[in-house]
Amino acid sequence: MQETRVAIAGLGAIGRALARRLAAGVPGIALACAAARDRAKAEAWLNEGQIACPLVEFEDFPRHADLAVECTGADAIEQICTPMLAAGKRVMVLSAGALLPRPHLIDLARAHGGAIIVPTGALLGLDAVAAAAEGTVHSVRMITRKPPRGLQGAPHLVRNAISVEGLNTAKLVFAGSAREAALGFPENVNVVAALSLAGIGPDRTTIEIWADPAVTRNCHSIEVDADSARFSLAIENVPSENPKTGRITALSAIAALRKLNAPLRVGT
Predict the structure, then answer these.
(1) Alpha helix locations (H) across 58-149?
(2) Helices 103-112 and 77-86 sit at what angle, rounded to 10 degrees?
(3) Of 18, 21, 58, 59, which has the fewest Cβ atoms less than 10 A away?
(4) DSSP, res 166
(5) What phi-psi label fits residue 71: left (phi over 0), alpha (psi between -120 and 50 degrees) or beta?
């Protein structure tokens, strides 16, 4: 089986879960290297877990790996994607919202034969949305409900002085397009960015974001109206160690990596 060498960009909650699974063994996938902001902390964690994985800088990824998985957040997307895509390699982007204001990264991939992969992540139904988009999609609407602490610090809340502390009832904190949501909540709603990229784009895909003290999970519901089907989807994701991110996100990245070289691939 052809082996794909993988670099992990970021060793937070998602990057660590990914590193543990790859170190344990995934057919056709080899853990090649990683990068972390706090190198000493990352080295200590790798040593404690007996995970053999050299730490390098983002710009060195192309020398070590065929594919990089971005687990750091939107602020490092350029540093991770640019060297890999310029070398004709692949990047799996979990912070899908960071792609919306950076179409030049897609152009870079196209120019050099690289590729950007956006896994399903914390959302289900992207295959159905992508299939419907081959026809005519009339509307895609999403409603997200999160525990208030999972939204704290979001730029939209800070900029508009919206407090989510001490809530007794659900509070609507945003309503607008996926593009606007990605700018206002760069660490919270990558799901709607992925949804928009699979379907009718970030300006026609709409979202409501609620801070809801009654929920303990990150809850997403989607309604799609197309000429081929009308369907509704709902998912409740268990938060990871980082309350802004669902536990299923890392598992989705692993599933996407497993599919790369598999003899049987299920799903679009």
Answers:
(1) 61-64, 77-86, 103-112, 126-132
(2) 20
(3) 59
(4) T
(5) alpha
For residue range 90-114, list pLDDT tens digits in order.
999 999 999 999 999 999 999 999 9
- What one-letter code names the amino acid at 43? E
Does domain 4-122+248-260 correspond to CATH entry 3.40.50.720? yes
Among residues 112, 138, 156, 220, the one annotated as catalytic is: 220
Q: What is the reported pTM?
A: 0.89
Task: Assess whether 104 carries a catalytic annotation.
Answer: no
| Sign (positive or negative) of CA dihedral 210, 133, 248, 64 | negative
Q: Which amino acid is it at 64?
A: H
Instruction: Residue 163: count other Cβ atoms within 10 Å of its Cβ.
Output: 12
Structure tokens at 130: 């992508």
- Taking only the tens place, the pLDDT of each residue in 197-239 is 999 999 999 999 999 999 999 899 999 999 999 999 999 988 7
Residue 55 CA to residue 9 CA, distance in Å, equals 10
